[in-house]
């Protein structure tokens, strides 16, 4: 699928923040814990979710959509030999199934995970975390072979404070009776989302939002669960960035503010002007939201480097947005993407749209602004966030651009073309 973009148009109106991709995939893995039905309200209809549903239905999970509400009905027994390997291998988060399926099988195999191409993204922290529960993982060419001799850990120190490894440990601890303490846990939004869901299932979790989680595991979950998904900070950040690059006044509602406060502070220091409402709660009753109104702003570069960190630092998924923002800020911006090899290299694609960048190494890039953006024809890189910033740059570039092979964008964003068109962008699908 390709996109045609006539750039330079101002955006106007109101856009509602969508629910979270990363939250959704964690809850789909968690649904494997429940012997009864799980209804997830506000499930995003995105390609990443589609791949999970293909994998889940292939092993026996019943799937029913009612608008954007998804009900999952488990079989009496999952048939992992029938798993849709092609679908499973397209998403890295399939590895979280291990934390759930270890409660169903003494041994099993799942396909090796894929997802964004961002250099070396080791899965070893998952192995080190799950071995505390008696899980042994043998890596084959195309699969993970798993054997389980279940035991109750007292304390787990995570090898790294990663989002999916924390979620895998939570899934393992949920149905391991007794108290499991998880230290150096991620406190990011998708981890908190999973904690809220597990609490709805009857599991007590202490320390939500901190780096130490105390999980009181139970014997089983066998009750109908209904849960409302929370909003996605990276979806809100997309539209904040689009407003900045197109120099537009835009209203963005239902923004999960606790996961964008630092990003907004950085933008304030770059002279970005905006207003925000008083906080209110998401439908889950836990996530704080605000409404933001952007104003056209003359930006200046920050003197300090911009870099990601584990929560409560600047979100790694939001860092790429600062690359395209920096093209419209007076001065030189240093972006240090230390978490991922190669991702900073993708940022140099902005040069083809008029940016002026200097790549220092695979992790650091200097972006010199302000530069006028111009139209071009590009192919999406095989990584979600670097692909989205090319689309945003095209919205701000005068002239006709074409963005080809947008699957990587559709993995994480629902209805972008329709939502942008409703805001006045001149964008359409191109066969």
UniProtKB/TrEMBL annotation:
Residue stretches making up the Enolpyruvate transferase domain: 5-420
One term of GO molecular function: UDP-N-acetylglucosamine 1-carboxyvinyltransferase activity
Domain of life according to the entry: Bacteria
EC number(s) stated in the UniProt entry for this protein: 2.5.1.7
InterPro entries reported for this sequence: Enolpyruvate_Tfrase_dom, Enolpyruvate_Tfrase_sf, MurA_subfamily, RNA3'P_cycl/enolpyr_Trfase_a/b
The reaction(s) this protein catalyses: phosphoenolpyruvate + UDP-N-acetyl-alpha-D-glucosamine = UDP-N-acetyl-3-O-(1-carboxyvinyl)-alpha-D-glucosamine + phosphate
Keywords: Cell cycle, Cell division, Cell shape, Cell wall biogenesis/degradation, Cytoplasm, Peptidoglycan synthesis, Transferase
GO process terms (BP): cell division; cell wall organization; peptidoglycan biosynthetic process; regulation of cell shape
Subcellular location: Cytoplasm
Pathway(s) annotated for this protein in UniProt: Cell wall biogenesis; peptidoglycan biosynthesis
Gene Ontology cellular-component annotations: cytoplasm
Keyword Lipid metabolism: no
Stated family: Belongs to the EPSP synthase family. MurA subfamily.
PANTHER family: UDP-N-ACETYLGLUCOSAMINE 1-CARBOXYVINYLTRANSFERASE
Protein name (record): UDP-N-acetylglucosamine 1-carboxyvinyltransferase
UniProt source species: Candidatus Kaiserbacteria bacterium RIFCSPHIGHO2_02_FULL_50_50
């Amino acid at each position: 699928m390709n996109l045609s973009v006539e750039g330079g148009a101002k955006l106007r109106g109101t856009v509602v923040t969508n629910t979270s991709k990363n939250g959704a995939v964690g809850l789909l893995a968690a649904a494997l814990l429940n012997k009864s039905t799980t209804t997830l309200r506000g499930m995003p209809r995105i390609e990443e979710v589609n791949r999970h549903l293909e994998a889940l239905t292939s092993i026996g999970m019943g799937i029913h959509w009612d608008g954007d509400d998804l009900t999952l009905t488990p079989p009496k027994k999952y048939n992992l030999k029938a798993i849709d390997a092609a679908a499973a291998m397209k998403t890295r988060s399939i590895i979280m199934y291990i934390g759930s399926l270890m409660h169903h099988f003494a041994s099993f195999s799942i396909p090796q995970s894929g997802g964004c191409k961002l250099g070396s993204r080791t899965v070893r922290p998952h192995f080190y975390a799950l071995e505390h529960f008696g899980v042994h993982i043998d890596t084959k060419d195309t699969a993970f072979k798993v054997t389980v001799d279940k035991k109750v850990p007292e304390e787990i120190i995570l090898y790294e404070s990663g989002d999916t490894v924390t979620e895998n440990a939570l899934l393992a601890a949920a149905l391991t009776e007794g108290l499991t303490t998880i230290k150096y846990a991620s406190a990011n939004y998708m981890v908190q989302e999973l904690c809220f869901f597990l609490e709805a299932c009857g599991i007590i979790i202490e320390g939500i939002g901190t780096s130490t989680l105390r999980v009181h595991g139970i014997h089983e979950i066998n009750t109908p669960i209904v849960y409302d998904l929370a909003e996605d900070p990276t979806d809100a950040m997309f539209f904040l960035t689009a407003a900045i690059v197109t120099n537009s006044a835009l209203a963005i509602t239902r923004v999960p503010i606790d996961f964008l406060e630092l990003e907004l502070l950085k933008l304030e220091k770059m002279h970005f002007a905006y207003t925000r409402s008083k906080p209110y709660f998401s439908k889950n009753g836990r996530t704080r939201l605000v409404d933001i109104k952007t104003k056209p702003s003359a930006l200046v570069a920050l003197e300090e480097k911009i870099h990601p960190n584990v929560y409560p630092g600047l979100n790694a998924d939001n860092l790429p947005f600062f690359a395209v923002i920096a093209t419209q800020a007076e001065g030189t911006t240093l972006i240090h993407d230390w978490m991922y090899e190669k991702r900073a290299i993708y940022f140099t694609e902005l040069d083809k749209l008029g940016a002026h960048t200097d790549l220092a190494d695979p992790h650091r890039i200097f972006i010199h602004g302000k530069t006028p953006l111009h139209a071009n024809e590009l192919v999406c890189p095989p990584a979600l966030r670097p692909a989205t910033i090319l689309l945003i740059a095209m919205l701000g570039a005068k002239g006709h651009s074409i963005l080809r092979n947008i699957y990587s964008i559709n993995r994480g964003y629902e209805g972008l073309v329709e939502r942008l068109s409703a805001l006045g962008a001149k964008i359409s699908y191109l066969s």
